[in-house]
Amino acid sequence: MDKARIKQVRDELKAAGVSSLGLLTPESKGLAKVLHPDEHIGGVVYGSYPGGLAWLIATDQRVVFMDKKPFFMTTDELTYDVVSGVQSIRAGLFTSVILHTRINNYSMRFVNTKCAQIFVSYIEKRRLESGAYNQNSNLYTPTDQQQPLAIQTVDVDS
Description:
With 158 residues, this protein is of the alpha+beta class. It has a single domain (3-155), classed as Roll (PH-domain like), CATH 2.30.29. 27% of the residues lie in helices and 39% in strands. The protein has helices at 3-15, 26-34, 113-132, and strands spanning 41-49, 52-59, 63-69, 72-78, 83-91, 94-101, 105-111, 150-155. Helix 1 (3-15) packs across helix 2.
């Protein structure tokens, strides 16, 4: 793997809010092999899901779910037209993110709050760019092939 590409991916992860501890995970180290050479990271969340620890990576081309374990790696690749919404839930110090798609719901718990904010904003931006909203008005007008965008942020601080 090209060292320049590995550095670029590492820099993009830092820009997406990934902590130095997050950069040590197996998923971050294997990410350069999963991404296309011309693909760039816009947002990332990583944390606990029912199968263990995993990452959701939003790039300029797709969303990748990645769970890397010893001897195997699970990845799901999603285009933005199947993303129907993203939900962020904050309770005290903990944040959860749920990516709703027509294929599956990807629920990540105990995620980095800064990463969650960047990820949710990036997903919303990509969905808006895809034409889910009418550019001439503030009214939502779904196209024939797109599901309505559902974005919900819940803050449960006492």
